[in-house]
């Protein structure tokens, strides 16, 4: 009997099914874990991820539609995580986990800022996941990618690079075609030049924030996911984002 199925994967890679055929909303957290995030910043990020995970589980409308994948850059380069599990490069398994089953990875800060490659990986896993959902006859909302960094894109040797310029036309086309919504957030001591990179990536949805307000950032992503489910117009997302930028969490009211 001919089968198109990939070879059987180890049990921990078994596809995690939703309990219903809810419309899916893929969400990628593309996180900078380079050495400049060491100490308090990475601790704050880990704590915020743990808290956000609990809030996601408690949010009935999001927990059964949102699928979460984590991409990191720093440490050993660019990596995708399936919940707390680091996926081997090229593993034939989607990093997306249903929100009600998601557990965050425990992140450590080291290494260089391969931001360009991390964004490319994020776009690739979103495209692959959409293809999987279509093949299964499942509907999906516009995916969200959230890039968070405190620095400038580097190459593998840690030197500043302009390779990120190649992403600008690609991101413009993808956003124009409504293939995903990209948020680009600068935290900590990000420089003017760093902010300029983020503005080039996400002209409408970029921010430069004092400190490391990861908790508010993740709540904004949840608010945005809720708006996506309700079929909100662009002005709603812009309002949610501007409230987040000015650190007025009005979406909680």
From TrEMBL:
InterPro entries in alphabetical order: VWF_A (IPR002035), vWFA_dom_sf (IPR036465)
Protein name as it appears in the record: VWFA domain-containing protein
All residue ranges annotated as the VWFA domain in the record: 26-240
Domain of life (superkingdom): Bacteria
Gene3D superfamilies the record matches: von Willebrand factor, type A domain
Lineage: Bacteria, Bacillati, Actinomycetota, Actinomycetes, Kitasatosporales
């Amino acid at each position: 009997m001919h089968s198109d199925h990939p070879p059987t994967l180890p049990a921990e890679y078994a596809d995690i099914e939703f309990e219903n055929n809810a419309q899916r909303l893929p969400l990628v957290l593309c996180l900078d874990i380079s050495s400049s995030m060491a100490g308090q910043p990475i601790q704050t990020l880990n704590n915020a991820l743990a808290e956000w995970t609990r809030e996601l589980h408690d949010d009935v409308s999001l927990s059964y539609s949102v699928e979460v994948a984590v991409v990191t850059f720093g440490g050993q380069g660019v990596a995708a995580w399936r919940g707390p599990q680091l996926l081997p490069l090229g593993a034939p398994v989607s990093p997306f986990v249903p929100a009600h089953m998601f557990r965050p990875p425990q992140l450590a800060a080291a290494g260089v800022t391969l931001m360009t490659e991390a964004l490319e990986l994020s776009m690739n896993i979103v495209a692959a996941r959409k293809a999987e959902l279509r093949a299964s006859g499942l509907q999906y909302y516009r995916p969200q990618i959230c890039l968070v960094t405190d620095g400038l894109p580097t190459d593998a040797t840690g030197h500043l690079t302009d390779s990120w310029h190649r992403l600008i036309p690609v991101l413009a086309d993808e956003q124009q075609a409504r293939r995903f919504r990209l948020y680009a957030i600068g935290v900590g001591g990000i420089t003017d030049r760093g902010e300029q990179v983020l503005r080039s990536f996400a002209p409408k949805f970029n921010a430069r924030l004092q400190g490391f307000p990861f908790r508010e950032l993740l709540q904004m992503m949840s608010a945005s996911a809720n708006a996506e489910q309700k079929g909100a117009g662009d002005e709603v997302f812009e309002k949610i984002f501007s409230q987040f930028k000015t650190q007025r969490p009005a979406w909680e009211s």
